Amino acid sequence: MGDAAQKATLKEAFWTDERYVRASWVNVIAMIFHELTAINVVLAYSTKILSGIFPEDTEGFNARDGTYMVGIFNFSGSFLSILTMSYFGRRPLFLGGHSTIFILYVLMGFFTLYEYDIMVLVMMCTFLVVYQNTSGPCAWAYAAETCCDASLGVALLVLYSTVFILNLTTQ
C-alpha cells in the first residue's frame, strides 16, 4: 500500500475508499473474535481455575504444576506458529482455528461438568497450542498486511478495548 496507506483518513478507510473499506471492517471484527477466544482469561486465571480442580496434592500434582504446564504449552506453541504461519493461509488458520477452539471449549465444559479433572487441563493446554498457531499470530499479521495505517490503529484500539471489557467482566 505504500504512500497511499499513509494518506488514508478514517472516513476513507471505513466508508468511502473501496480499496480499504472491506479490509478495515474485516480486521475490526477479526480483532474482536481474536480476543473473544479468552486467551487472556485462560492465562491470567489459570492458577485460580486449576486450584478449583486440583485443590490439594493429587498424586503429586497440584494447581501450580498445572500452571507451569499451561506456560510451557503456551510458550512451545508459539514456536510452532512460525511453521504454521508460513505453510497455511490466513483464512484456513482463522476459520479452522476458531472452529477448533469452539470444540475445545465445549469439551472443556463437558469435562468440567463431569469432573474429568485432568482432561480440563489437557483441553486448556491444547487450546493454547491451537490459539498460538491460529488466531494468536494470524490476527496481528493479517491486520498488518491488509490495513492502511488509520484502520490498523482502529483495529488495535478495538482489540485493546475488548481486552479491557473482558478484564472488567471476568473478575
TrEMBL record:
Keywords annotated in UniProt: Membrane, Transmembrane, Transmembrane helix, Transport
TM segment ranges: 25-46, 66-89, 101-130, 150-169
Annotated compartments: Membrane
Any one GO molecular function term: hexose transmembrane transporter activity
Primary location class: membrane
PANTHER family, alphabetized: FACILITATED GLUCOSE TRANSPORTER PROTEIN 1, SOLUTE CARRIER FAMILY 2
Protein name per Swiss-Prot or TrEMBL: Uncharacterized protein
Organism, scientific name: Favella ehrenbergii
